[in-house]
Specification:
Creatine Amidinohydrolase; binds magnesium ion; alpha+beta; 15 strands; 4 helices; five-stranded antiparallel β-sheet
Length: 249
């Protein structure tokens, strides 16, 4: 069953969304060649706790850190460690936070130093596909309409979509019903209603859509070693359309 959130719940989700958005904006200044991903993780954890929130990923399903940091060919779920970011890398950073029992979930892919036009375009297309998915998240539409909007745009641009990982409902749990694939057919799946909250998160690859899991049992990578981008917003469906709870400038 897809939960409908009431006003009080949506207000808490707004607070959680605001904190994860601020966390990534705060981190941006530190994303430079030479920094270790584990350093970014501790900056984020301190920041979230300073806002009286709880890191949403740490300990969940056994994940060891505050952030998922996925560099270059890593798609998602990269574990922060002593890996040093290099000039020209792209790095996906995914963060969750809990405020009074409610989750916010948000991801952006960042440039490290001078990034190639090829990678910049991959990032732009991924970001735009997220916007199109959000536009399709309106009362009366279906979950399939979201996937269709993303797939139609991304494949037309010549990129591929990771199939095994999907967006999701969000609220008191990080992952609630429904699953929200980044591909699909119009007019299929559950009908979207006001008060539903979703995390929409296209994962888009430059080359093959095929992925594998590294031996750490967490990090998902592209099979061909080409880069991948990931953007994610938490949204609430309103009577008019939807509102992004993890907005940034
Ligand atoms: Mg998510």
């Amino acid at each position: 069953m897809i939960k409908i959130k009431n006003k009080d719940e949506i207000n808490l989700m707004k607070k959680a969304g605001n904190i994860v958005s601020q966390t990534l904006s705060h981190l941006e200044q530190f994303i430079k060649p030479g920094i270790e991903t584990i350093e970014l993780d501790s900056i984020a954890e301190d920041f979230i706790r300073s806002k009286d929130a709880i890191p949403g990923f740490k300990g969940l399903y056994g994940f060891p850190a505050t952030l998922c940091i996925s560099v270059e060919d890593e798609v998602v779920h990269g574990i922060p460690k002593n890996r040093v970011l290099s000039d020209g890398d792209i790095v996906g950073i995914d963060v969750g936070a809990i405020v009074d029992g409610y989750y916010g979930d948000h991801a952006r892919t960042f440039e490290v130093g001078n990034v190639s036009d090829e990678k910049k375009e991959l990032m732009e297309v991924t970001k735009k596909s997220l916007e199109l998915g959000i536009e399709a998240s309106r009362p009366g539409n279906t979950i399939g309409d979201i996937g269709f909007a993303i797939q139609n745009y991304v494949e037309d641009k010549g990129y591929s979509i990771v199939r095994e990982l999907v967006g999701h409902g969000i609220g008191k749990k990080l992952h609630e019903e429904p699953q929200i694939p980044n591909y699909g057919d119009k007019n299929t799946g559950p009908i979207i209603k006001e008060g539903m909250c979703f995390a929409i998160e296209p994962m888009i690859n430059l080359g093959t859509e095929k992925i594998y899991t590294k031996s750490d049992n967490w990090t998902i990578c592209t099979q061909d070693g080409l880069p991948s981008a990931h953007f994610e917003h938490t949204i609430v469906v309103t009577n008019k359309g939807s509102q992004v709870l993890t907005q940034y400038n």
